[in-house]
Amino acid sequence: MPSRADWFRPGGSSGERRNGNRFPLGMGLQYTVLSSPAPRITGEGRVVDVSRSGVRFTADRAMVSGMNIELAIQWPVLLDGDVQMQLVLSGNIVWADGNEAAMEIVRHEFRTRGGRLKVV
Q1: Protein fold of 21-113
Q2: Partner of 67 for a Cys bridge, out of 1, 88, 93, 105, CB 3.0 to 4.6 A?
């Protein structure tokens, strides 16, 4: 029986095991490791792909399986035509290989990034 992490690992233990479609995004993100002691660990990275239940990403430092983490992905669509948005995902790292990792999504929400775009 494959482990839960194999459902997210590219290729899994015996070929492609991820259920559901994965969509490549290549969008920038900021992360916060919620399970770290104060001060919290933060950094930047890029989304590799996303599905309804997980996200694979690269980070500017090595990740560790089991970390509780929050990702803030800069969303390309504006709210009301001028308010920047971000998709905030919370969950746990289910596998990590150096600076690449996969997170199981436990919670998601859209947030505004504060302020409106200024027309120059």
Answers
A1: Thrombin, subunit H (2.40.10)
A2: 93
